Amino acid sequence: MAESGRTLKLTRAESGSTLQLTMGESGSTLQLTMGESSSTLKLTMGESGSTLHLTMGESGSTLKLTMCESGSTLQLTMGESGSTLHLTMGQSGSTLKLTMGESGSTLQLTRAESGSTLQLTMGESGSTLQLTRAESGSTLQLTMGESGSTLQLTMGESGSTLQLTMGESGSTLQLTMGESGSTLQLTRAESGSTLQLTMGESGSTLQLTRAESGSTLQLTRAESGSTLQLTRAESGSTLQLTRAESGSTFQLTMGESGSTLQLTRAESGSTLQLTIGESGSTLQLTRAESGSTLQLTRSESCSTLQLTKAESGSTLQGLQGAAP
Q1: Is the pLDDT of residue 267 over 60?
Q2: pTM exceeds 0.90
């Protein structure tokens, strides 16, 4: 059928039927296709060449608008699991995409010139805002959840990261240097604060912990596994050196009542201990193999030398009084 350049065409097939209307003056067409699994309605505008495309199927529906002059497209897809709205700007090639699903929603903006993206994701457990710069490969990400929030900056060229985590129990600021793999971490909690430096090449760590009860400075060498630890508390301070190869320890404790210097050899288990107090001093040697001890005690009034043999349980003691 034709009137003033208009045509109406009906096509029937086994898979479906098509009804097409063509308007001669403008060259526009309206086409309806009905199939077993889905139906399609398509409008094409002749002067601009733009199209409006609607598809309805069992799994979902899609509405797409294409503008030929600018090359831009707007597409809406609705499915069982969620919906997507996609806008593409033809001149710049940039895209804006909104996805809404059962678990959450995502809004993403991509700039074609630079390739950079800005993405916002909102879910049941929390939300994430991420900015990615394509030129450098750097990203800035903010995550907000029920348990806490995290702000992370990743520098693409070096691979270094700066991360700030804020939670109910405390906060953590961590700097990771990509080239060396070293990390610097600061943790603040109710119980105390910790500053830890880890050197990537050697794997050694330097840790400073400050708490209400006292402070601790610990240096650990990864190659040998040895540690040097300094602890300062209200009751006193302790300096301990532990050698991982032998397992031996050197410990110095300084308190209000006195000081103690103790050397422990891991191979034999023997200890040498010197205690200096207000009332006197004690030097004690303990042999782990036999369990025997040799103890020298000096006080204001007298001195005592005591030898105890663990095997026999015998004790030999010498006492020397103070000079008259």
Answers
A1: yes
A2: no
- Condensed to tens digits (0 to 9), the pLDDT of residues 63-120 reads 999 987 778 999 999 988 889 999 999 878 899 999 998 888 999 999 988 889 999 9
Q: Tell how far CA 201 is from the center of its chain.
A: 21
Is pLDDT of 323 > 70?
no
Query: What gap in Å lies between CA 23 and CA 323, rounded to an integer?
Result: 130
Q: Residue 42 contacts by C-beta under 8 Å, 6 or more apart in sequence?
A: 29, 30, 31, 32, 33, 51, 52, 53, 54
Res 23: pLDDT:
81
Residue 154: how many CB atoms within 10 A of its CB?
Answer: 19
Give the pLDDT score at 313.
66
Token duo for residue 37: 């699994």
- Cα distances (angstroms) measured from residue 85 to each of 73, 95, 306: 11, 11, 89
Which tokens in the block code for residue 268?
């034999």
Residues 6+ apart with CB under 8 A from 120: 106, 107, 108, 127, 128, 129, 130
Query: What does each C-alpha distance from 276 to 109, 258, 298 come to in angstroms?
Result: 72, 5, 9
Spatial contact of 152 and 144, defined as CB atoms under 8 Å apart: no
For residue 323, give every residue at least 6 positions away whose Cβ sits within 8 Å of its Cβ, in sequence order, or none: none
CB-side neighbour CA atoms (13 Å) of 8: 4
Cβ pair 87, 65 in contact under 8 A: no
Using alpha carbons, list the distances in angstroms from residue 287 to 183, 216, 296, 297, 314. 43, 31, 15, 18, 15
The alpha carbon of residue 145 and the mean position of all alpha carbons in its chain are separated, in whole angstroms, by 14
DSSP state of 322: P
DSSP string of 157-171, one letter each residue: TT--EEEEEEESSEE
Query: Do residues 197 and 182 touch, judged by C-beta distance below 8 A?
Result: yes
Six token digits for residue 134: 């394509």
